[in-house]
Amino acid sequence: MRHVITLWEMTTAEIERIFAISQDLKSKLQQGLREPLLAGRVAGLLFEKPSLRTRVSFETGMAQLGGSSLFLGADVGWGERESIADFTQVLSQYVDVIVCRAKTHRRVEELAEHATCPVINGLTDLAHPCQALADLFTLREVSGDLQGRTLAYVGDANNVARSLLLACAKLGVRFAIASPAGYEFDSAYVGRIKKEIPGAAVLQTRDPVEAVRAADAVYTDVWASMGQEAEKAIRSKALAGYQVNEALMKQAPAGARFLHCLPARRGEEVTDGVIDGPQSDVIQQAANRMHVQKGLLVWLLTEA
Ligand code: CP
Ligand code: NVA
Predict the structure, then answer these.
(1) Per-residue pLDDT at 32 exceeds 90
(2) Which atom belonging to ligand 2 lies closest to the Cα atom of 225?
C-alpha cells in the first residue's frame, strides 16, 4: 500500500507509468470509452478548504472509472469529535482511498500514519502533488519531450511551486524561479532536491526577466494562498513586481506557453491578456487534473 503525500515517495519511472495510464485513459475518453477499471471502489474526499478542480475532478474521475466517491466535509468531525487515529482507522474500513485537502501538512501525514488504505494529498500548505503531476503532463502535451525543458515560475514559492520544483527535478525539467526576498524557497528544501536528485537544475533569482529568458513555459500562482488571507495586503506589496503580464511574456522565447494552477486573481499575479491570450494553456491544464488523477488512482489501486 502506497501514499502520495509529496512526490518524494515516487520514482521517475512510476511518474512516467502514471502518465502512460493517464494518456491512455484520456485518449479512450475522447473516443467515448469509459472502462470500469475501478468498479465498486470508493474514494473518500476529506476536505478542510474550498476546491473546484481537485474535488470535482476526483469525483468525476472515480465515476468514469466505474467507482464512486464520498465528499466528507467538516461534519465528519475529523480530529475534533474523536482522535485522528480512531477516525482514520474506521474511515479506512469503508473506503478504498482517501483524498485529503488539509490546512496543515501534518494533518495529511497523520492520516497516512493511521490509514490502512492509500492516502492522496489533495493540497496542503506545503505541497500539491496532484497539481504538479497534471502540470508536467500538460507541459509534455504542449511542448513535447520533457527532458531539458525549462519551466519558469514567477511569484511566491508556495505549495504549488514546491511540488512543481520536485516534479521538474524528477522528470529532467530545468526549474527557474523568481521570487522577492522573504517569499523564496527555504534553502533546506532546494538543498535536499539537489542532493537527492542528481542533475536537478534550479535557478533562483529575484529577477522575473532572468527567470523567463529560456522558458518553455511560464507559471504563476496567487500571491496569497488559502489560509493567508490576513497577509493579503503585505503580500500584494511584496509581490507587485512579479506579475506575469504581456511585457514579461515578451521577455520569454516566442513559443513559451503560460500555465496557472487556478483559481487565478486576475490583475494581480496575471493579467487578462496573458491568461486569456494565445500562449495560455490553463484550461487544458485544469482538464488534465482529471485525466492524471484517473491515472494516479488506477496505478495506486491496481498496480502500486
Ligand atoms: N488547482 C486547484 O487545486 O484548484 P482547486 O482549489 O479548485 O481544487
Ligand atoms: N497556492 C494556492 C493553490 C490553490 C490551488 C493555495 O494554496 O491556495
Answers:
(1) yes
(2) 8
- pLDDT tens for 219-239 read 999 999 999 999 999 999 999
Radius of gyration of the chain (CA): 19
Residue 186 is given by DSSP the state P
3-state class (DSSP) for residue 56: helix
Q: How many other β-carbons are positioned within 10 Å of the β-carbon of residue 7? A: 23
Q: State which ligand 2 atom lies nearest to the alpha carbon of 123.
A: 7
> Read out DSSP for 127-157?
--HHHHHHHHHHHHHHH---TT-EEEEES--
Kindly list the distances between the CA atom of residue 269 and the CA atoms of 25, 211, 234, 252, in Å, as whole numbers in the listed order.
Answer: 33, 15, 14, 17
Percentages (nearest 5) of helix, strand, coil residues in the chain: 45, 15, 40
In what order do the strands lie in the sheet containing 68-72?
Answer: 68-72, 42-47, 97-101, 119-121
Q: How far apart are CA 114 and CA 298, in angstroms?
A: 22
Grid cell, residue 171, equals: 522528470
Closest C-alpha to ligand 2, atom 1: 225
Query: pLDDT for 170-208, tens place per residue?
Result: 999 999 999 999 999 999 999 999 999 999 999 999 999
262 lines ligand 1 (CB under 6 A): yes
Q: Which residues are catalytic?
A: 101, 128, 131, 221, 261, 289
pLDDT digits (tens, 9 = 90+) for 106-119: 999 999 999 999 99
pTM over 0.85: yes
Whether 262 and 282 have beta carbons less than 8 Å apart is answered as yes
| 2-28 tens-digit pLDDT | 999 999 999 999 999 999 999 999 999
How many CB atoms neighbour CB 246 within 10 A?
A: 12
What pLDDT band is residue 77 in, cutting at 50, 70 and 90? confident
- CA torsion sign for 53, 159, 68, 10 is positive
CA–chain centroid gap for 294, Å, is 14
